[in-house]
Predict the structure.
Amino acid sequence: MNGHPHPTGATSVALETVESALHDLRAKAPPRLADRALVEVGLADGLERFDSPIGRLVVAWNGRGVAMVDLDGDGTAIAERHRRLTGRPLVDDARMPARLRRAIERRLAGDRRATVPLDLRGRAPFEAAVWRKALDIPRGEVRPYGWIAAEIGRPRAVRAVGSALGRNPVPLVVPCHRVVRTDGSIGQYSLGGPTMKRRVLSAEGLDLEGLERLAASGTRYLGSDTTRIYCHPTCHHARRISDAHRMTFRNADAARRAGYRACRVCRPAVAA
Amino acid sequence: MDVTDRSDDAGLARALADDLDAAFERLVRDQVDRLYSIALRLTGDRRDAEEIAQDALVRAYRALSTYDAERITALRLRPWLTTICLNAARNRRRRQADRQPPVSLSVVAVDPDAGPLVDAGAGPEAAATAASERDRWAALLGQLPRRYREPVILRHVDELSYLEMAEVLGRSEGTLRAQVHRGLAMLRAAWEAAERTEAIA
């Protein structure tokens, strides 16, 4: 201390010394602080791991929502894909809020009412509409591409719906696996191909063989001759119809001609 | 006299006005250490300081995203961010006060950020002394009444100008000069008192 003897015996400290001591109280912020701020405002993403029926997943997220879901694996490839998809850097040390983690876990367990915010900046409104619509399909059920197209008001855009689903950046969180080809066959899946799609659907309790048998026989809809309502085959109302009362239809027109009305829950596509 | 260059801030404000998302990371990297330092010296707690500084940066981004280009360009970033940081610290203090009984000063008066500012050439003994002196100054600063502590931190830990401090704290420059002077004198007196106690013991 650059002081001098004081009458009382202690040292006297110059004000400049106090000032320079204060100056030295500047501190360096931990590196994670800047990263976490950037993640919170959505200018960088963090990565978080989750378990799923088809193995471990990585989920890229930020303060605006979930931006990418992929199978866990080679870190470099994941970072590369994330960069291509979002244009944002990935940071370590980001802490996913517990509420978001729980919501994702619930969603992965099939609860579509769990609120999982999505960060779909930069995606076409049509794509986002397709993905949002897929969220209306309950666990254990499927709908054809044409149903999504009709529901979002683009009944002719069936192919475009198919390719939008193939570009879904957040598979499983947005259950694009619950959308199948109009002929009832399972169709493609971006997250590891048709085999993975079958595995997810089976894990959700869907009777795949039953569905494929119906599809092969040309049946698109099931009706009940007591309620005179027709449904998608996997609609929970259709599954309650007993064998004695079950009617099969090759298309919506046939059902309507037979005097059946469309189920208000699974909303068979009028245009299909 | 200002020792910190403010011309970069005007350039950064223009960049933020031009493209917020492209320029915001630069603001974060430029400002994170000073916001953290201010929050750390205000609260004396490293975890609180981290959360306050992060909160301040997030609030700044959200505010900027609602401002038009003209308003952003006109911002004096340093005092503006400091105001947000102090508000974030106040909000946090209020929330904590609602949740738990007040903590005695002796509990918080330990500097958790000890150590890094030591001459590279100094030996371990010198390092230990320097670290402990820094801790003691930090503890004394933490015990300073808030109306002195805030201006002392902004002036001497952060080096805002009195004009900028007047904007942040809403007090006149004259009042702030007097409070900083008084705060420094109180710190010196506290330091000397501690030295005397040590000499006796």
